[in-house]
Amino acid sequence: MSVALRGWPRTRAELEDAQARLGAARPPPWGWEGGALRVAGCAVVSRRGGAVAAEEELGFAAAALVELGRDGLAALAYSAAVGALRAGFESGLLALREGPLLAEAVVALPEAPGLLLVHAAGRDHPRACGLAVKLGAALGLPSVGVTRRPLVAGGPLPEDRVGARAPLTRDGEEVACRVRTRAGVHPIVAHAGWRTTPEIAAEVVLAATRGTRFPEPLRRAVQRARALRDG
Asked: How far apart are CA 90 and CA 37, in angstroms?
């Protein structure tokens, strides 16, 4: 894969400074017209997990490269990385904990994706720079974040039908949207990331979801990471 990591903050102060700069940046927007697209879903799991995970705990990251096309989804490649999670869990600072390991997994893919799908917030963040934004900027790739719920943004619920969406705003700006990927199931959040808008984020998420709540590239990445952890 031709992309390379352009350094990563090692302290809270360094990360917050980088987040402030990237949060204020407005790079040229990435566009997608619905054609074939190679998406890399990436995720990290640990043995303890979540808010109880301690600093320097071992993390297991995986990336799944999936092509979205008119005829469906096709898995192309997988990669993985194992290493120390550099910090404990703290809201708004996930990039310090998981970022380097996720970057290592993505860089290990045999070819560069057209877009990153990250299990993290994007512009819906106190400094408008969640892990989805930071990882995309560091790797020079457009990115979209996906989470179960908003981080700091607020807004209504969408209608109970597949494809329905509702905007989420932070300080008056739309930064994400709730998307209904399955009727009768809680919506997920599609986050604007690096060089993407909430509208593009929702379109990618819906195109990458096939009868499940979460997009297939992320589901496959989580499955691989868990298998690596449990193997």
From this structure: 33
**Could you tell me if 62 and 98 are in contact, meaning their C-beta atoms sit under 8 angstroms apart?**
no
73 by DSSP, 3-state: which?
A: strand
Q: Radius of gyration over alpha carbons of the chain, in Å?
A: 16
Residue 62: left if φ>0, alpha if ψ -120 to 50, beta else—which one?
Answer: beta
Is the CB of residue 198 less than 8 Å from the CB of residue 206?
Answer: no
Give pLDDT, residue 52. Answer: 46
Mind listing the pLDDT tens digit for each residue in 75-94? 999 999 999 898 888 899 99
- Per-residue model confidence (pLDDT) at position 87: 85
Give the start-end residues of each E strand in the chain: 37-46, 58-69, 72-84, 115-118, 143-147, 165-170, 173-179, 188-192
What's the CATH number of domain 12-87+97-230, 3.40.50.300, 3.30.460.10, 3.40.50.720, 3.30.2170.10? 3.30.2170.10
pLDDT of residue 2: 47
Position 218 scores a pLDDT of 97
Ranges of each domain in the chain: 12-87+97-230
Contact 197, 168 (CB under 8 A): no
